[in-house]
Amino acid sequence: MSILRVAGHFIKDSFAEVTRGSRAYHIWMASLTVVMLFGLFNYANQLEHGLIVTGMTDRVSWGLYISNFTFLVGVAAAAVMLVLPAYILDKIDFKQAVLIGEGLAVATLVMCLAFVVADMGGPGRLWHMIPGIGVFNFPNSLLTWDVIVLNGYLFLNITIPLYLLFMIYQGKTPKRKVYIPGVYLSVFWAVGIHIVTAFLYQGLQARPFWNNSLLGPRFLASAFAAGPALIIIILITIRKFTRFAVGSLTIKNIGLIVTVAAQINLIMLVSELFKEFYAPTHHSISAVYLFFGLDGKTALLPWIWTSIGLNIVATTALTVHKLRNNLKVLPVLCGMLFIAVWIEKGFGLIVPGFIPGPWGKITEYTPTFTEISVTLGIWAMGAFIFTILAKTGIAIELGKMVYKKNRLSNN
């Protein structure tokens, strides 16, 4: 009963913490709520009329929703880049940021699942993916593997930080034998969620654009570039607007991780371009469409070349130590890299895999207003969830939320 009583106080204090704040905080949360409601309104329109209101067709059946899903799986996996040095290598400076990274992982995984629901046409079809009820088809279907790794990683990233924060809230020291096994498991699981997603694409034999042995490793490289890049932007923002002391050394160390991952990702991009264009075959036609256009169809051209340009500029600048260690320049470069990878993993990977079709038909894809609105709503939901988790975690870390104080005041 005492645990339930503490849990009740924990929930009550968390609710009180997230409902109070500065004017800027309330404007931020209100803005996210408006965007979420607008996205929900357009999702209701999609539910009523079906996927016909999207830009997807029977020829290009994955669009903006799956593009964001693929990208966000990588962002979620990037939390391991903080978990590994903080808990396993026991680097103290990373522990200041690890809860932020795991909170980001939770938010992005919820967004991933939301994008899958949106792409399926409605939540009523989810029962097909429930083991024992629907046609789960495990272990033959890679989609079922994806369901397992995503939900498993979400469970790990909820329970581990929750245990740590719950113990700190009570003024107790977390027991390493309780959470360290989960930390080790989450490290391997993080790699697994991105590898399984890459295998899902690689296994589609009718889509030669994805039949690339580098797809899995490049997924990881781009994930470990974009995810920590976003974490850096968040940490610098938190440092500016709160009393949470995120050290400059922590941010610079994460910046080094971003730089190395971005360099590897760029090398793999050059390797793929060499493979596609040095000795092109008929299987290179999707790459030709993506990078140069085909038969006058050039919808993806500005997207992919913007991505490559941002990628090269950001990676080159990050390689220069003076620029990377400048905390005013670093978030700008991280923002450029984040956008570059978002385009690369979306319009640069998913859509061209369907163009041209198996019979050579070129049907271009352009997202509709409904898709864009629902996408913005899901991103706003992720930001809303992350803000709540981060605000609660920071309050506990700073000692603003402590169970003993509440208990004494109640007596």
UniProtKB/TrEMBL annotation:
It comes from Saccharicrinis carchari. The chain crosses the membrane at residues 25-44, 64-87, 99-122, 142-166, 178-199, 219-238, 250-270, 300-320, 332-356, 376-398. GO terms for cellular component: plasma membrane. PANTHER family: POLYSULPHIDE REDUCTASE NRFD, PTHR43044. It is a multi-pass membrane protein. This is Prokaryotic molybdopterin-containing oxidoreductase family, membrane subunit. Keywords: Cell membrane, Membrane, Transmembrane, Transmembrane helix. NCBIfam families: DsrP. It is found in: Cell membrane. Pfam families: NrfD (PF03916). Belongs to the NrfD family.
